[in-house]
Amino acid sequence: MRLNRQSVIFIGLLAIAIVVSWILLSDDGENDTAVPTAAATAETILLFPNVQETQLTSLSISAEVEVGDTRPTPIPGNPTLEPATPLPEGVDPETRTESVALMRNDAGSWVFPDDMGDAEAEMTAEPEATMDAEMTAEPEATMDAEMTAEPEVTVSPDQLTTLVTEPVTVDTIDTVALDTALRTLVSTRSNQQFTPENGDYSQFGLDNPTYVIEFTANPALITPDPLSPPTPDDVSSPTEPQNYRLVIGNRTVGENGFYAQLNDDTETIYIITNASALQTSVLSLVDNVPLLAPPTPTPAPILSVPGPVFNGFLLNTVTDFTFTNNETGDVITLTRDPVTTEWIYDLNGDVLPALQPQLQVVLNTFGLIEGVQRTPATDLIALGLDAPTYTFTATDATRTYTLQLGDQDATQTIYYSLVDEFTDVVLVDATSVALLIDLFENPPVPVPAETTPEATAEMTAEATAEASSESTPEAEMTAEATPEATAESTEEADTDE
Q1: What are the pLDDT digits (tens) for 179-207?
Q2: Cα dihedral sign for 267, 273, 274, 275?
Q3: Predicted model pTM
Q4: DSSP secondary structure string for all residues of 169-221
Q5: Rounded to whole angstroms, what are the CA distances from 319 to 96, 335, 392, 397, 414?
């Protein structure tokens, strides 16, 4: 069968389309061959052999970031408009350079260089400078000038040492999270290396790179494992701090890799394969350095009287109580068992078997102590607060609650008290602390059975009855030898005769 001309053309175009489609589909970024190369290799290599993330002592990353849409917005201060204005053909977008620099301090933590520099500057300050200036000062100042001059603040060498040792308040970098991100960097691999035939690096974005990563690694920061003999790579690896540089250009055709250059080699192009992991972990550090969340400050105690004197008190968060009778010297210590959550009751060093339900009721009243009024303290001695009668404390994970009770008023319905560190005297409702005070007289422990004379007589009668019911055979035989039994035995004997 003969093919006409149109059929031949159609078949040829179809074959070309199939070949082109196969080339495009087979390009996954790891086998990128659609670039002009000279002396290309397909060897997979580790870019930073023998380098571990914990060896890094300094790191800097710079990035060229597109500015984006710069059209004026309807209202000043509003975000830029979307979608962005398309640029004319052949016009590159405006960019700006963003960068980040980090250093590892002597404690092994990552910090910002400015913070480390400020601390070092303070530590290396010469305390003698002030002294020299004072010695060279002109002595001709008049007394009037001295009296009208601003008071000068001088710092002695001892005071300077004190100031330097105070911690500097800075944003704390999450060193663990940062080292985890840098593990991706030091494990970067390249599966292809080549040199452009025409020497044109712009087509790979390396004439004006998108990212430049520079870091220093100190091999001495890793202690060799004495159980593992050194390998040839370990023997040949450097022992002094080494500087490394990774220049990153465009992504590969398949978007799975980056074109990059390594260290001082400005000719070889490396195709690195972990573009996505590198982007999310390392390159994002330019604008997102992992920081430790600041600790939640403990709320300052608030004395809101009238009302409960201990706001925020929760019994289920308390770990221990201490109740002290300062007049008798009795001390009750209650500690929560971490396993059973029951309270261990200790009275003057002796652990007693407490009745948990009753004890729980008493301890709940600690959060219900009612303040009736507060007044400035004028004479603590007159109120019995120079030497309080009772001291009650409760401790949880964040704070300690303290109540000191002095004398009662004339009506016996009020205790004068001091709460926590507040200086005002708080008038406390006596009924709200009655159960706590009663612990010293009536501890919630099992009471032994009462041994009264009546109880003793009853116990003796019960014991006698029980003993009588359990008589032995010999006792029964003895009990049967009554006069009637003796006469009967005599009659039987006469009859037999």
Answers
A1: 999 999 999 999 999 998 888 898 999 99
A2: positive
A3: 0.47
A4: --PPB-HHHHHHHHHHHHT-EEEEEEE-TT---GGGT-SS-SEEEEEEE-GGG
A5: 56, 6, 14, 8, 29
